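Shipment paperwork, digital attachment
Item: protein structure file
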Amino acid sequence: MKYLLVLLLLAGVAGPSFGQTKAQLLADTLRLPVDATTQRITYAAVVSQPAASAAELYTRGKLWFATPAYAGRVLLRAAEPEAGVLQGTGWREVRLLVNSTWYFPKLLYTVKVAVKQGRYRYEVTDFRFESAPVFTLEAPAEPLAAETYVQATRPRKTELKLAQDARQALAKASAELLASLQAGMSKATTGDAW
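Attachment content:
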């Protein structure tokens, strides 16, 4: 039973709906952005900040990493001021319901912010679920985005529901993280910020 959550996370992709074919189930799923090159779930964009210098954006990025401004945590792991790059890892606890039991695995991810004059680029990727302390396995999130699973297998309703819940938790956590990052990168810093 300890590994049920991890196995189910690796197995499913879509949310069930009565009377739908597998193709319809697939068409109605929550789409997660998958990078064509790496085949990993990746949220990335370039955001324009025309009035901000590269140094100002770098400072805003460092402050965002240092300030827990949303429900998860993001820790700065690498800072390259000359290149204008900040990279960190983050996590957030999510809720998943499996057979009338709530599980609270951590959703882990990597955040990278690169700054240039008047713009910055973010990339959030390497999503994986880490189970509660009683479990010892990690499950990558990519099987949740694999569209071939529903066509190739006959998942049980429990697996379909768990996969849909995991996809929704990932999408919600990502949306909140990106909103927090964009708000932090839009805040002008003052020379005397303390």
